[in-house]
Amino acid sequence: MDLRSHFTALGEGLAHFDGPGGTQVPASVADAVGHAYRSAISNRHGGFASSDRADAIVDEARQAVADLLGAEPEGVIFGGSMTANTYVLAGALQKTWTPGDNVVLSKLDHDANIRPWVQAAERREVEVRWAVPDASTDLPADQYEDLVDERTRLVAVTVASNATGSMPDTVRIAQIAHASGALVHLDGVHATPHGPVRFEDLGADFYACSAYKFYGPHLGATVARPELLETLHPDKLLPSSNEVPDRFELGTSQFAQLVAVHATIDWIAQWGQGTTRRERLLDALAQIKQQEEQVFARLLDGLRSKEIRLIGDPRRRTPTVAFVKDGESPQATASRLADKGVAVWAGHYYAIELMTLLGLPDGAVRAGVVGYTSDNDVDRLLELL
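-> structure tokens emitted (385 positions)
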């Protein structure tokens, strides 16, 4: 799969290991956005041609995300970011909580799947309980047996750590949560680019992701069963639609961004085989996963041969690694690599609870492999280290 030739941004010469913080965009997606801005688009539900186009853009984007995640289009919520969507959901869900209830969070997670729930719990006088990863940054699922009880209203956990790539057993965690009647919110931001997804098979009642992590625009999407969304009532403007999923989307839709989401998912699907777009997406993402794993193995083996301290060693992971170079701060390592045209992140990358738990006040260097990462990129990084 020659994904690289579709990314004109790679012609600037950087070796991009910053994918966990956001990927580059295929040329066809950029072209689709340009075409959208050159076309007449009005607000929705106007009954004239440019408004009809807006309605179609939203509907087509919902269907595309539904195909990507194995959801129903009526259960697809769009927002400016995953963080924004999670705050909207937290505001709606907290209305169903009462003092004495509890929510169970994970110290493995990005803060976007922590702080909205912590703040909602504080407002409702609800207890916050914590699941804790071990030294490998695996998240033992058995601990949820002791954390979840009949007063647990929500379990929020990541599908993959954006810091170390660690992939918890969300199916087992969700079984424990659902047995007590709790809902499960899965952060799929870091997992979605790296393999096929069917959100309910992972145990999710809510599954959140960000398009700019899978080669698309800066836009968040959260999916759920439409009948579950019907039971929730977020704060909104009085005249705005009360229909699901519209009631969860604040303000006017970002039409050009939705065009880009649709174009991105079609771009991924073109690499797969199958009759339906869903089938093509599953096949394409399985192929991309295999390619990423081969490149990541080269990176991981190379890092292990150097004076590098790897942060964690999870049993299941996405192609992401965090490390610290002996005698050099993470920020100094990242700066030195940047000077030589290699892009990595340094710090906590919003995994603040994890880095605090691991005793890493300066965080770590993070390198991630995505579909366009090459063996040459890996060799450049390793040589500079």
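The two ends are 28 Å apart (CA to CA).
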